[in-house]
Structures are given as structure tokens and as C-alpha cells.
Amino acid sequence: MSNSRSLLDLSNELLLDIVESLRDDTHALLSLAQSCSRMQKIAEPLIYNQIYIQSGTRLEQVVHAFTSRPARADAVDSLRLKIRHHEYRSTSAITTWVKQIPNLRSWSIESPWCGETPDVQSSWHTTPHWVEEESDKWQEDITNFEKAFQEAAISNPQRNPEALPALRSFTLHSHGLREKHWNIRDMAAIFFHQTLEYIHLSRVSGTEKDTKRLTIASNFPKSTPLKNLVLEDCKIIAAALFPILSLPKALTNFTLQESMAWGVEMAGQTPIEFFAALRQQAQSLQYLKHHASFGDIYTLQNTTQWHGALLEFEALSCLQISPQSALCNCIREGLAPPNLETLRVASTLTIKGRDQARDAAEDEFREISQLPKPDSLRNFDFVPSNWLLDVSEPWAYASLVFDLLPMMQNLMVELRSRNIAFRTFVDQLLRGGNISRMEDYKEVLVFDESMFESTESRANLTMKDKEGFQSQLLKKLDATMNERESMRPQSNL
């Protein structure tokens, strides 16, 4: 008791410092919060600062904690919902609280089916349990998410200034109810949010008829603080992209990764309209990533209709593209961004057979190596496809990457003469499943010029070199896997 009294004799400032040092010790924080009302007020803001809900039981516990003591919600800075399908429950109760959390800055949501195995996913549209129960719950949740943003949208005449007032980052990693994509009209209000600076949406579709809810954007040009927009694995046409990109005051980072699907119109397939949408952010974009859908390396048909392409994108310093992107044609003289420093080309090949994959990879890299290199360029990066072979066979994948080394070496020599560094990254898929989780992708630097110092010709690349390279690559991938596991979001609840 004497120790407890001596601790409570300290000023709040000193107590705050002491409790802050225990931020990562959940047990200690909970013990302090339960000791007395004074310590509860000091410890609970750390306990509830970051909330990571992975189960239905945890969801109910958090809602109960907020209901019994509403002040706890004031401490929440980050909320992540990631409940697996086998214990999924409607999140409407927590969403009601989200709208009232005054200091929430980061909110991320994953569908309960993200990260599941292909066998499970392939039956989601035929399994009565999913269709009759989970799909209804998930649709209800999507509706509630949209309502929360609608209350805060600048396009809403009855906008509630107290709805999500501090939110800076929002991520929705989802899919449709009976298909792999959800519709952009279900969450159009996100783009009209008054404080969001980062939006990451995956597997969203936007067709001509889906753009009606976005037409109101013409009344609010350059009105939102959005800085970073990521549209991942999406099916969206340029007509839907145009109003979305008209809203930010000064977008600095934009990623459009189109779904690998045949016979579906996407923004990158209508380059003139695509560029019209991009040009709205020409003065501010610093990073632009476009991975196009399936197809051959894109060939520009009518240069005169491009009106300078990326030439007016003076702030653009990093461009990441797939060989199928129309942006491949915008790095040649008269069309390239004047201050482009890094060009990263990512393969999207999906061939499984060993010999066929090697031949296709070599053909593609040969064409990639012939892409124009603007005078301003300082880094030329290559990202081999992680779908060339089964990702469950990393040794075979490492062997395939090794087969490209001689061609990479030749390109490196050419680039070195122009003071351009050559680097190769692996866009590593850390898990299987048709719908990956948010943290499943990680780019790993496999090698750069330093690895070629002792290998000046193809003849020097011996079997011993190959085995050593495979071992080195696998060690890097394993290390990255371990790093990602250790850095998964944690919660004190």
C-alpha cells in the first residue's frame, strides 16, 4: 500500500511519463487502470489508442467498453476491423461509435473473406451460409460505412461537422457479394470527405452507369485535402476516374492497379480519356503508378491527340508502370515528365510452365530494356512477376529470376554509362488466396549493381553462382516474411 501511495503522490505529469513507458505492456496498463480512478484516466488513453479487432468476441468487448465508459472512445486514434468469416458478426454497433470518435485518424476495414484459400473463395457465391447470412451482414456493414462518410461529405447540405472530424486515413479491402469486385457507387461519399489525406480501396469497379453518384463532383473542384489515392486490383473506367481526380486540391501520389481480366473496359484502355483525368493533378503529382490489365505491350497510335502527355507533370519524379500501360509511351522525348528520376517497370506475366515462363520472361524483359530512358532518369527498376510460377515454389521462382541475370547485366552496363542505377525488386506475395489481405504484398530489393561487380559476362554465371543467388533470394524473402509477421498491427485490447 505504501508503494501505491507514493506513486499517487506524484504529479500527473510524472505519472504520464511513467505510464507512457509502459505503452507496450498491456498487462501493466490494465492493472494500473483497474487500481483506482486516477490511474484509470491516465492508463486508458494508451489502452484504447489503437484498436485492432480480429474476432466477433473482441468486437463485442470493445462495444461494451465504449458503452460502459464513453470517454474511452475519445482516446481512439486508430481502428482496424479484420474479422474472419467463420466468426463474423455485423460491425454496425462499432460503426455507430466510429462516427462519434472525435480523434480517430486512421480507419481500415477488411472483408471477412480476405486472405481465404481459393477453394473457400470459389464457393462463396454458392454457399447458402455465406449468401443468406454473411452477405447480408456485410452489405449492412457497407451501407453503414457509406452512411458514416455521407454525414461528413462536403457534398451533403446537411453535413454533420462532428462526423469523422479528424480522419486522415481510410482503407477498405473488400469484394462484391457474389463476385470479386464491389461497386464504387456504394462508397462514393468517401471521395467527398473533408479531412481524408489517404484513401486505399481494393477490388472496386466503376462502369458508365456507376458514375452518376460522382457527377456532383463538378460542383466541388479542388476541394478536398486528399494527398494519396490507391485503387488496387480495380475495374474502373476513365469516365469514373475523371470526377474522382477532380476533387483533390493537390494529389501527390496516385496508384491505379487494374484487375487482370479479359474483355473488361478499364481506364488504361482509353488513354486519351485516362490522360484527361490524370491531367487534373498534373501540377502536384509526384508519384504515379499504373499497372494495366492483360495484353501486349502498349503501342501508341496517335501521338498528336495526347497533347504533351506527361510533359506538363513537372513534379512527377517516380513513375511505376506495367509493360501494358499506355504510360510506356510517355517516357520518350517530347512526352516524358521533365523531372522524372525513377522509372519502375513491373511485369504482369502469369505463365505457370517452367520453360514457357522463362521464354516469356526473357521476351518481355527484352522489350522492357528497350523502353526510352529520359535524360533526367537516375534509377531504372525492374519488378519480375510473382505469378510466373506457383508462389508455393520459391526455389523455382528464384531460379527463373536468375535466368534473367545475363540480360539484366547487359542493361546495367548500358545504364551505367548514362549514370542510371539499375535495381531489381521482387513484388512478394506473402500469402495465397484469390483475395489477399492488406499486408500481403511487400517489395523486396533483390539486387542492384553491386551484385554484378564480379560477374562481367554470362560465362561467369556458374551453377555455383545460381545456387548462391537462389539461397540469397530465399533468405531475403524469408527475412521479409518474418519482418512482416513481427510488424503486424497490435492492439492493447
Polypeptide structure, described:
There is one protein chain. With 493 residues, the chain is of the alpha/beta class. The protein has three domains: 1-47; 49-340, Leucine-rich repeat, LRR (right-handed beta-alpha superhelix) (Alpha-Beta Horseshoe), CATH 3.80.10.10; 351-493, no CATH class. Helix content is 34%, strand content 16%. The chain has helices at residues 2-8, 12-20, 26-35, 37-47, 56-68, 92-98, 118-122, 128-152, 238-246, 271-278, 354-369, 394-403, 405-416, 463-486, and strands at 50-53, 78-81, 106-110, 169-173, 182-183, 198-202, 204-206, 228-236, 253-258, 287-291, 318-321, 342-346, 379-383, 421-429, 441-447. It has a 15-stranded mixed sheet that branches. Helix 9 runs parallel beside helix 10 (271-278) and helix 12 (394-403) packs across helix 14 (463-486). The protein is globular and about 70 Å long. Residues 117-132, 296-304, 429-441 and 453-459 have low confidence and may be disordered.
Biggest sheet architecture: 15 strands, mixed
Strand proportion: 15-25%
Average residue-wise pLDDT = 77
CATH architecture label of the largest domain: Alpha-Beta Horseshoe
What is the CATH superfamily of the largest domain?
Answer: Ribonuclease Inhibitor
CATH topology of the largest domain: Leucine-rich repeat, LRR (right-handed beta-alpha superhelix)
How many separate structural domains?
3
Low-confidence stretches: 117-132, 296-304, 429-441, 453-459
Number of strands: 15
The Rg value, from CA coordinates, equals 25 Å
Helix content: 25-40%
Shape: globular
* Structure classification: alpha/beta
Q: How many individual helices?
A: 14
CA(first)-CA(last) distance? 27 Å
Order of helices and strands: HHHHEHEHEHHEEEEEHEHEEEHEHHEEH
Please identify the top-level CATH class of the largest domain: Alpha Beta
Protein name: F-box domain-containing protein
